[in-house]
Amino acid sequence: MRYHLASTFLLISLVAASAQTPPALTVGSLPQQLEAARFGLRVDNGVLSGTGAAVLTEAITRSHYILIGEDHLTREVPQFTTAICNLTAKQGLTGMALEVSPEAAAFMMRSLASPDRWRQMVALTQAYPFSVAFLDSRQEDDLVANCAQASHNSAFHLWGLDQNFLGSAGWLIDLMLTATPGPEAKAALLRLKTDEQRDAAVAKANADISALFLLSEKSEAEINEALPSINRDGGAEVKRIFADLAASYHIYREFREQGYPVSDVERAKLLKINFRELLNQIPPSEKSGKIIVKFGVLHLYKGMNALHNLNLGNYIAESSEMEGRDSLHICILGAGGKHSAFTKYGQPTHIVGVSTTTDPMLRWTEPFIAKQISGQWTLYDLRALRYKNLGQLDSEVRRTLDGYDFLVIVPEFTAAEMAD
Fold first, then answer.
1. Cα distances (Å, whole numbers) of residue 34 to 43, 288, 392
2. Please, which residues have CB within 8 angstroms of residue 365's CB and are 6 or more apart in sequence?
3. Per-residue pLDDT for 204 more than 60?
4. CA dihedral 325, 331, 332, 338 (to 10 degrees)
5. Which of 94, 95, 200, 325 could form a disulfide with 289 if both were Cys (CB 3.0 to 4.6 A apart)?
């Protein structure tokens, strides 16, 4: 939900609102109903236990798509997802879709079998700061490796569905230059490389992400100027990467001009288009395997999310229903603790506190946190509450009951270990 560029600006825009005393949540009779819908959960060495383990296992057994909506860059969410992978793999696991770019996912897959897998990610992020989102966390990097291994599937897929991260233009240009473009496309890419290096130098000198190539207003003309040359002799791989670069730029431009809620509609379209195209590429022999999808909480609701758009989770819910399959939507959040966060360009990530009381986007969690089970994680079966007459409810509480099947509350998050 956080630490993508747009989410960061959204939180900044909410500072004034969060500084004020918010009105009390309206939760009807929900608190009285929560105890019957809650279960204890533990995660140890990739295995779920506690009373909630059997409930989750039964739901996963019946589901083809397992969606995990998270708060990013913690250690606990990858632990939980690893356990879900281990459980799902026993029933056949085709792959995972993550909130990263196609290029970041491809880099991760190339390094999976290497003994210095993590060092490769560290080297990439040092050479190209802010080029990879989330997989530059050691826990996320290990998660993918663990899930691929647990699947016992030599054709295990890792799909990146998202736009490229805001500092990735230099990396993408270098990837295109190594993909043997023709002379005209190569000359255009070298011109873009000069422009990108200029922008990155300004951004680093001023610790200002807005100067980066993907965020700069003048980059649109430079992209448009290069496009005819790329089309003439770039070759298929160069054209594909260039299209990803251009799409990423246009999403960031939409954010710059229209703001987060509006621009996220275009981003949601990209996620859904990429997911559909990748599913269509799966050979018939792999279509029966389950797929795990892990994104920020806002992306995986069934129905309208809190930004008032129909995002990836709703698309998967609708598509799976038409396929005669089930999708399972799990939200995992922390009652407190810390997580890692991106900061100014060229500076290391830092650790920030998790606060559901001051974050307007998370205030709906208050009744669930108040009823959490002491000494372990708490699993709420929201399906058991969805059709009860709970009286007047806060709109976001209602949205969550309808949009997610399970809610996991972790008592205390700990920050992820980052590549920088």
1. 22, 35, 15
2. 333, 335, 356, 409
3. yes
4. 140
5. 94
